[in-house]
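User: Just a sanity check before I run the rest of the batch. Below are the structure tokens for the first item. I only need the designed sequence back.
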């Protein structure tokens, strides 16, 4: 059973070492570094059997939930996890639906396209979450923490999946939600879910970075609670994405876990999950993480692969060259280079979690690469031909696997899990793709 004082927040910078109480709402340390949720206890491996048994939920929503089924591994509320009344009092859930339907599937046509045996490739559709993306995993935990600290309002900067998820959870919990966006730059359709769930849209003069900055300031000064992925509690919920993948593979660790790369919250949470499981002795092998950027928003891939100033940026045991990152951002500003891809979910030039992402890549001997928009569309489309729905950014996982196989970085007999991060929310993307017979999987209309 959890003890009070077991969970706390700690700065990720080993040279800094600030720590904070678990009910702090700081999203960074006083020197501006990201924070981790840390646990003093070491969960027993016997929990594997308990997690398995909970898949027969017997009407308990916290067992039904693909997030809270693993609640011992994210028990920052420090509750008695077997006591359902305590769970109901603290844990925020969309009636058990977050993460419930997401698990890895074999998709024959996608595997054939990528160049792997069908038995060796798994794709996990996180779009089958209630708001249509992986964000619900981390929003369940972030909003749980918001309630724990009595926040009356949650706040995010988002032009898509985050705002949809935050709005849905806020509506369910009866709390307010403010969504900050750059004025005049966002197609209103992108925000239709946020409007639908009653979120308050706040327009900010400037670009997305300005909107994020103002949302963080307003959260800080006006009692809002930030639910962007800089919030370390978001990362806790997103750990359940690899937990579910590993559990469905009977905790037999794959060789690779592949994610599209945006703000790098997923990379960070996968890395943290693997670090913890390895430290606890639950896994003996560490899968490698591959992050797939869009060519038009390739900050991580550029820096990691030494394409800027010929230096390969690394976590370097907690001493990353942050000056290199600053110079890269200055260069983007100076050249007027803005992230540009039709896969808007990963159209991010300044990944908020880049340092946690680098830490994850270092721990897992990971790789980063890029794919083009047209390749992502092929990846998205071949997933569709298996009867699964995903958004364009998710196509990056499939086509990224294909690229890494062709470069012999992923070997043909490796076991690979790719994460499909979200569901199709832009109806015209598949329509346009299939209207052009030049596209690989196009099936144009007949007349
Ligand atoms: Zn610090």
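Assistant: Here's the designed sequence for the first item:
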């Amino acid at each position: 059973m959890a003890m009070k004082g077991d969970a706390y927040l700690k700065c990720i910078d080993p040279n800094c070492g600030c720590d904070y109480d678990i009910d702090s709402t700081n999203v960074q340390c006083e020197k501006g570094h990201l924070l981790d949720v840390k646990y003093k206890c070491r969960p027993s491996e016997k929990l594997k059997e308990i997690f398995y048994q909970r898949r027969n939920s017997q009407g308990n929503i916290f067992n039904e939930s693909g997030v809270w089924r693993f609640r011992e591994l994210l028990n920052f509320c420090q509750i008695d996890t077997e006591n359902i009344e305590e769970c109901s009092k603290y844990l925020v859930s969309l009636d058990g639906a977050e993460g419930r339907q997401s698990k890895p599937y074999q998709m024959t046509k996608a595997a054939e396209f990528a160049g792997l045996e069908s038995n060796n490739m798994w794709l996990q559709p996180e779009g089958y979450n209630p708001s249509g993306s992986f964000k619900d995993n981390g929003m369940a935990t972030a909003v749980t923490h918001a309630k724990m600290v009595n926040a009356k309002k949650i706040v995010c900067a988002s032009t898509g999946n985050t705002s949809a998820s935050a709005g849905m959870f806020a509506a369910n919990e009866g709390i307010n939600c403010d969504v900050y966006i750059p004025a005049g730059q966002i197609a209103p359709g992108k925000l239709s879910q946020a409007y639908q769930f009653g979120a308050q849209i706040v327009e900010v003069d400037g670009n997305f970075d300005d909107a994020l900055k103002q949302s963080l300031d307003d959260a800080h000064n006006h009692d809002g609670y930030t639910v962007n992925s800089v919030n370390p509690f978001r990362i806790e919920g997103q750990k359940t994405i690899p937990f579910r993948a590993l559990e469905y593979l009977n905790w037999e660790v794959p060789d690779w876990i592949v994610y599209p790369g945006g703000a790098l919250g997923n990379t960070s949470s996968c890395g943290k999950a693997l670090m913890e499981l390895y430290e606890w002795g639950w896994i003996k092998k560490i899968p490698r993480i591959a992050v797939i950027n869009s060519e038009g928003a390739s900050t991580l891939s550029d820096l990691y692969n030494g394409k800027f100033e010929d230096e390969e940026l690394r976590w370097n045991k907690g001493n990353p060259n942050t000056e290199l990152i600053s110079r890269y951002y200055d260069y983007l500003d100076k050249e007027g280079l803005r992230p540009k891809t039709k896969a808007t979910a990963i159209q991010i030039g300044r990944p908020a979690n880049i340092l946690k992402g680098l830490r994850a890549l270092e721990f897992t001997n990971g790789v980063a690469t890029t794919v083009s928009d047209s390749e992502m569309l092929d990846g998205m489309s071949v997933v569709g031909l298996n009867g699964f729905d995903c958004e364009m950014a998710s196509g990056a996982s499939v086509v990224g696997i294909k690229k890494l196989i062709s470069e012999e970085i992923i070997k043909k007999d490796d076991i690979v899990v790719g994460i499909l991060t979200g569901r199709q929310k832009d109806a015209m993307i598949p329509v346009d793709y299939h209207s052009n017979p030049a596209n690989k999987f196009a099936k144009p209309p007949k007349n």
